[in-house]
Amino acid sequence: MDNLAFDSTQLEMQPRDAPEKDKQEQQEQPQEQQRAGGPEKQDRQQWSNGMEFLMSCIAMSVGLGNVWRFPFTVYENGGGAFLVPYLVVLVLIGKPLYYMEMALGQFSSLGSVQVWELAPVFKGKRERTQTLQPSSCFSRRYTVLDEVDDAWGISRGIGSPGLALSLCLGATWVLVWAVTCCGVKSSGKAAYFLALFPYVILFMLLIRGVTLPGAVDGILFFVRPDFGRLLDPTVWYAAVTQCFFSLGVGFGSLVMMSSYNAFDHNIYKDAMIVTSMDTLTSLLAGCTIFGILGNLAYESGQSVSTVVKGGSGLAFVSYPEAIAKFEVAPQAFAVLFFLMLLTLGVGSAVALLGNLTTLCGDALMPRAPTWAVSLATCLVGALLGLVYVTPGGQYVLTLVDYYSGTFPIFVLVAAEMVVIGWVYGLDNLCRDLELMLGQRPGLYWRLTWGLITPVTMIVILVYTIATAQRLEHNGRPFPDGAV
């Protein structure tokens, strides 16, 4: 479908560090257009060095999904056998998507909405999705939750935010603003700590965990394969969901962060490093957590399956119970563990907030200072987050997780692959990469971008719609009004 493609040389989104001819053309453009912001902004920030970008990508992709979501997903989807579909999905969807989103951002030097000037007919849809989705989601949930909780005997709806948790929430957003107040100039420096500190704690917990009695039984329980589950479509669907949740593709953050790169930065190397580290970190976290849970089962005389809780319960119930039974410095390990969770959460939040900040700075408030844009988005995020610290916050979390963080991402990514591979054109994308990196993508990338990944995403989207069921929380379905 290359006849439908837009020639990359005709696009208005000229890269900032393009060859000298392109630079000269940019300088000749009207000064009024440059002051208005957008593709030709000459004062756009850049990472101080390539390592800051790499650390920021690691801090975003290696997050809470690796620590509490991946281990339980592996456990309930065939144990070690789950790694087969997960690795297949990583190779055929995860890596190609990660590399492609990096390429889009770096070539255009634009945020996740403005970059869609490569196919202008799709720009409005993407912009409305990213700007209206959060507000419409939360406005709907307030009316829905009254009905949900009344049906379950909670007569006062979701309740009021707790003071202590609200203060903790506010402190977290203050921390996020402090990291993002100067754009990539400040977040790049903080990325070293946000990316590396969790590994220090994780290795300390791993070393301590595997030396505990019963740890081997817990790890074997985690990796023991059930190959019969490989024929179950839900296992493959879980692999796709986990891959998206873990890598952070489809949210626009990768495009945003890559847009602050130098034009010739080697994003291929970074994409391979981050996607590989993300998988290894998930396995490391799984062995750590189930090793400690194995000790908890050993001490209590129960089986490992009885002490495992899914979702947030794994991180905030099972794991603290296990740490409390440590004979050596349990308080210290508990503090380190929750400090690691905080660091992981802040690292992911910085990337997501940066996406919104870049959108506002590029398109909505081009003349506003970075600190003010960041402050405004943090205040909105803190106010919306109050709903999660109410007694019914878990109900809202379940709704938002699915209707804003799972299904819409499948739709966006499927559309993204179709637009880039079949509308913008595979040849144009490969020429863009060759212009940046001096090397044309190989057969693997051309096959995945042009055929395998978009077709697979369409199949996954159809399967998701065909098998959709009423959402449940704690085994109880939400009423019709919730969907």
TrEMBL record:
Question: What are the TM regions of this chain, as residue ranges?
Answer: 80-98, 162-180, 192-223, 235-260, 280-298, 333-356, 368-390, 402-424, 444-466
The record's Gene Ontology cellular component field reads: plasma membrane
Q: Which GO terms describe its molecular function?
A: amino acid:sodium symporter activity; L-amino acid transmembrane transporter activity; metal ion binding
CDD domains xrefs:
SLC6sbd
Q: Which PROSITE patterns match?
A: NA_NEUROTRAN_SYMP_1, NA_NEUROTRAN_SYMP_3
Q: Where in the cell is it found?
A: Membrane
Q: Main localization of the protein? A: membrane
Note one Pfam family from the annotation.
SNF
> Residue ranges under compositional bias (Polar residues)?
1-12
Q: Which UniProt keywords apply?
A: Amino-acid transport, Glycoprotein, Ion transport, Membrane, Metal-binding, Sodium, Sodium transport, Symport, Transmembrane, Transmembrane helix, Transport
Membrane topology per record: Multi-pass membrane protein
A Gene Ontology biological process in which this protein takes part is: amino acid import across plasma membrane
Q: Where is the composition biased (Basic and acidic residues)?
A: 14-26
Protein family membership = Belongs to the sodium:neurotransmitter symporter (SNF) (TC 2.A.22) family.
PANTHER family per the UniProt record, alphabetical: SODIUM-DEPENDENT NUTRIENT AMINO ACID TRANSPORTER 1-RELATED, SODIUM/CHLORIDE DEPENDENT TRANSPORTER
Describe its function. Answer: Unusual broad substrate spectrum amino acid:sodium cotransporter that promotes absorption of the D isomers of essential amino acids. Neutral amino acids are the preferred substrates, especially methionine and phenylalanine.
**Name of the protein this chain belongs to:** Transporter
Species: Frankliniella occidentalis (Western flower thrips)
